[in-house]
Amino acid sequence: MSEVFIKTLNYSRRLSRFKNRETIKAVRAIFSQKPLHKFEVAQIVNLCPETAEEAKALIPSLENKLEDDDLDEILRDLHSKKTFQ
């Protein structure tokens, strides 16, 4: 394996928020019926904001897509998946 490949692999392992396949499937299921673009989902998962207000500040396109209560519920689900994996 090349040195670049190994460095890339190590980098992605370090930044990985969710470690096992079951957790990743569960995270995908959270977003399956939501009116979000793939980019928005990726940003939510990567940034892991704690509140709807923080999420909308970091990802302005969320502003008119979800109510704060719905977004807060999604964020709580993500946090619990991350904690209990």
UniProtKB/TrEMBL annotation:
<dbReference type="InterPro" id="IPR038324">
    <property type="entry name" value="Rpb4/RPC9_sf"/>
</dbReference>
<dbReference type="InterPro" id="IPR010997">
    <property type="entry name" value="HRDC-like_sf"/>
</dbReference>
<dbReference type="GO" id="GO:0030880">
    <property type="term" value="C:RNA polymerase complex"/>
</dbReference>
<keyword id="KW-0539">Nucleus</keyword>
<feature type="domain" description="RNA polymerase Rpb4/RPC9 core">
    <location>
        <begin position="1"/>
        <end position="85"/>
    </location>
</feature>
<dbReference type="Pfam" id="PF03874">
    <property type="entry name" value="RNA_pol_Rpb4"/>
</dbReference>
<comment type="similarity">
    <text>Belongs to the eukaryotic RPB4 RNA polymerase subunit family.</text>
</comment>
<dbReference type="GO" id="GO:0000166">
    <property type="term" value="F:nucleotide binding"/>
</dbReference>
<dbReference type="InterPro" id="IPR006590">
    <property type="entry name" value="RNA_pol_Rpb4/RPC9_core"/>
</dbReference>
<dbReference type="InterPro" id="IPR005574">
    <property type="entry name" value="Rpb4/RPC9"/>
</dbReference>
<protein>
    <submittedName>
        <fullName>RNA polymerase Rpb4</fullName>
    </submittedName>
</protein>
<dbReference type="InterPro" id="IPR045222">
    <property type="entry name" value="Rpb4-like"/>
</dbReference>
<dbReference type="GO" id="GO:0005634">
    <property type="term" value="C:nucleus"/>
</dbReference>
<dbReference type="GO" id="GO:0006352">
    <property type="term" value="P:DNA-templated transcription initiation"/>
</dbReference>
